[in-house]
Design a protein that fits this description.
heterotrimer; A alpha+beta (about 200); B alpha+beta (about 180); C alpha+beta (about 180); B: about 180 residues; alpha+beta; Aminopeptidase; 6 helices; C: about 180 residues; 7-stranded mixed β-sheet; 5 helices; 7 strands; about 30% helix; globular
Chain lengths: ~200, ~180, ~180
C-alpha cells in the first residue's frame, strides 16, 4: 500500500534529522571520548576525535552521499528538544543486488535503554525497504555487543555468518556476527502487525 | 628459508599492469567468469580501462593490500591473480582473500587450489595473520570444493545476497584460523 | 507592460541562499512533501550542504535556467520554489519544476497561481512555444492544479517509480502557446 502520508522521519520520541555542522561536532566529539561506546560501534581501533575532526568527517559523509549515492546518513534527534542523540546509517549499498549495510548507535549513556534505538531502527528499516526498495539489509556486530544482538533479534533478523575469532580486543578473540533481514520478512511483520 | 611463493603447479608473481590489463580485457569477455567472482554487474572493459584500474590498484595499493599474479611453473604462463586485503592490522590481524583463474580451459586443474595454498602460507608465516576470510557465491561449487580442500571452514551465508539471471543466490563466508592452518601442515 | 511577477495570491521573487537553505531543511523534514515533489529517495541534507547545492545552481548557465521563490501576497511568506529549464533554445521548449513546501498552503490555490505566473513568464518573456512538466501519478492534487492552469496530459510512463513496494506511473503534461490564454 502506498503510504506517502506516513512520515518516514518521525517516530514517537525521536526523529531523523540532517547533520548540523555547527552544533553537532562538539556533541559527537564527546561520544568519541567514551571508549566503551566506541568499542561497541567500531571494529577498528578506537580513538578520540576533536570537534574539528568530526566536522571533517561530516563533510566527507555528505560528499560521499552526493557523489556515490550508496550511503544515506541520518542523525537521530530527540523530538522534544531536537538534541542530537545518535546516528542511523544505511551504507555500502549494492544496488544491483539490492543489499545495504545498516548501522546505528545512541551516543550518550543517559539516552540508552529508553527504546530510542528500537524507534530509530524501525525508521531505518522502513526507509531501506520502502524508500530505497532494498531486497535485504545486513548488520555486522561484534559478539560482545549483546545490546545490539538483542535488538536485531527482536526485529526478526537472522544470524547468517559468524566469523570466528575475527576481532582481538581486551586480550580476547571475539567472533564477528553478521545478521540479515529480507524485505519480504519485514513486509510480513508489517502485515502481521508486528514491528 | 625456502621460496614461499612457489607451489607445486604454480607460483605467485609480480603484477605488470600492461600484461594484466590485456589479459583481463580478454577474460572479461567470458561472462561466466565475471559472474563467478564479481558481485557487481558483469561489464566489458577496454584494455585501457583495465590497465588503468590495475595501475591504480598497484600505486594506491596501501600496505594493506598484497596482490600477485598466478603463473604456471611449467611455462610461466599468466593464469590469473590472487590478492589479500588486510582489513584489521591491529586487532585480530585478519584479511580477505580473492582469487581468479582467467581462462576456462585452465579451470579444474588444481591451479587455484595450489595458488591458495601458497597464499595461506604467505599469510600465516610471512604476514603473521591470525585468520583469512573469503566470500564465494553459492553457484560456484568448484571454488567451494577447492577452498574446503585447502582448509577453509564454512562460517555461514548471507541469504539471497545476489540476484543473477532473475534468481536469488546466497553468498557463503568461509574462514581459516591460524590454528586451523597449523593443524593441516 | 504586465507585472510578470504578480498574480492573485502569490508573487515570484528571489531569495538569498541562506534563506532558501533554511527553508529547504524545514520542508525536507516532511517526507510526504518530498515524496510528492521528488523522485530521489527522501534525504535529509544539512543546511550547509543545501546552501552548497543552491550556490552551485545559481552559478549554472543562467541563460537556460530561471528559478524563482514563491511568496504569498497576503503575508509575504516564502512557501516554495518554481523553475524553468530550457534544454536547448532551438526547440523553444522548457521544463517546469514547482514545489510548495509549506503544508498549510497546500490545496488553497497558491500552487496553481504560481504555475499560471511561470507559464505566463515562459510565453510572454522567454517567447517559448511550449512547456512541459512531469509528476507522479499519485500526486492527484498537483494533477488537478496543473490541468486548471491549462496543461494537458500527454503521456504516461508505466511503473516509472517504486515506493512502499508499489510501482507507480509518471505522468507527462504539456501546454502549447496556441492553446494558452493570457491571464
Amino acid at each position: 500500500m502506498l503510504s506517502i502520508q506516513s512520515q518516514l522521519f518521525e517516530a514517537q520520541d525521536v526523529r531523523f534529522g540532517p547533520i548540523d555542522h555547527e552544533a553537532h561536532p562538539d556533541i559527537e566529539s564527546k561520544w568519541t571520548h567514551d571508549a566503551e561506546f566506541m568499542r561497541l560501534m567500531e571494529l577498528a581501533p578506537v580513538r578520540p576525535l576533536s570537534p574539528a575532526m568530526v566536522r571533517k568527517q561530516y563533510e566527507s559523509v555528505e560528499k560521499k552521499m552526493e557523489e556515490d549515492k550508496n550511503l544515506f546518513y541520518f542523525t537521530v534527534r530527540a523530538r522534544d528538544d531536537d538534541r542530537l542523540i545518535g546516528k542511523a546509517v544505511v551504507e555500502w549499498i549494492d544496488w544491483t543486488n539490492g543489499n545495504g549495510l545498516i548501522r546505528l548507535g545512541i551516543g550518550a549513556e543517559t539516552d540508552r535503554r529508553k527504546g530510542y534505538g528500537s524507534q530509530a531502527l524501525r525508521m531505518l528499516l522502513r526507509y531501506s525497504f520502502s524508500e530505497l526498495n532494498l531486497y535485504r539489509v545486513t548488520a555486522v556486530v561484534p559478539a560482545y555487543n549483546e545490546g545490539a544482538l538483542r535488538l536485531f533479534q527482536k526485529f526478526g533478523f537472522m544470524e547468517e555468518v559468524r566469523r570466528r575469532k575475527a576481532l582481538h580486543r581486551d586480550g580476547t578473540f571475539w567472533d564477528i556476527v553478521s545478521y540479515g533481514l529480507l524485505n519480504s520478512e519485514w513486509q510480513e511483520q508489517q502485515n502481521n502487525g508486528r514491528g | 628459508m625456502n621460496d614461499i611463493l612457489k607451489g607445486q603447479l604454480v607460483r605467485l608473481s609480480t603484477v605488470d599492469s600492461d600484461e594484466l590489463g590485456k589479459a583481463y580485457s580478454a577474460w572479461k569477455r567470458d561472462s561466466e567468469l565475471t559472474r563467478l567472482f564479481d558481485a557487481t554487474a558483469s561489464a566489458l572493459q577496454s584494455v585501457k580501462s583495465s590497465r588503468s584500474f590495475f595501475e591504480k590498484m598497484i600505486n594506491e595499493g596501501s600496505p594493506e593490500e598484497y596482490y600477485f599474479t598466478i603463473r604456471l611453473l611449467e611455462d610461466n604462463r599468466l593464469l590469473g591473480d590472487i590478492n589479500l586485503d588486510i582489513v584489521n592490522h591491529w586487532m585480530g590481524r585478519n584479511a580477505f582473500v580473492g582469487i581468479g583463474i582467467g581462462d576456462r580451459n585452465d579451470w579444474g586443474k588444481g591451479y587455484g587450489t595450489d595458488a591458495m595454498k601458497i597464499m595461506l602460507r604467505y599469510a600465516f608465516t610471512e604476514l603473521n595473520l591470525e585468520r583469512v576470510t573469503l566470500t564465494v557465491f553459492e553457484y560456484n561449487p568448484r571454488a567451494i570444493r577447492s577452498y574446503e580442500k585447502v582448509g577453509f571452514q564454512h562460517e555461514g551465508r548471507q541469504r539471497a545476497r545476489l540476484l543473477k539471471d532473475g534468481k536469488r543466490w546466497d553468498m557463503l563466508f568461509m574462514g581459516i584460523l591460524r590454528e586451523d592452518w597449523l593443524a593441516l601442515q | 507592460m504586465k507585472d510578470l511577477y504578480r498574480e492573485a495570491l502569490v508573487r515570484l521573487a528571489s531569495e538569498p541562499p541562506e534563506v532558501m537553505a533554511k527553508s529547504f531543511v524545514k520542508w525536507d523534514r516532511d517526507s510526504e512533501f518530498h515524496r510528492l515533489a521528488d523522485s530521489d529517495p527522501a534525504q535529509l541534507w544539512s543546511e550547509k550542504k543545501l546552501k552548497e547545492f543552491i550556490d552551485r545552481n545559481s552559478e549554472k548557465n543562467s541563460t537556460q535556467y530561471f528559478s524563482f521563490s514563491i511568496r504569498t501576497l497576503v503575508d509575504d511568506k516564502y512557501i516554495g520554489f518554481v523553475s524553468l529549464r530550457v534544454p536547448a533554445w532551438s526547440h523553444s521548449d522548457a521544463w517546469i519544476g514547482i514545489m510548495v513546501g509549506e503544508r498549510d498552503y497546500w490545496g488553497k490555490g497558491y500552487g496553481t497561481d504560481a504555475m499560471r505566473l511561470i507559464v505566463q513568464y515562459g510565453f510572454l518573456e522567454l517567447n517559448l512555444r511550449r512547456m512541459s512538466l512531469g509528476l507522479h501519478a499519485y500526486n492527484e492534487r498537483a494533477l488537478k492544479s496543473y490541468e486548471k492552469a491549462g496543461f494537458t496530459l500527454e503521456g504516461r510512463v508505466r511503473g516509472d517509480g517504486l515506493r512502499d513496494g508499489i510501482r507507480y506511473d509518471s505522468l507527462w503534461l504539456g501546454i502549447l502557446r496556441e492553446e494558452w490564454e493570457p491571464i
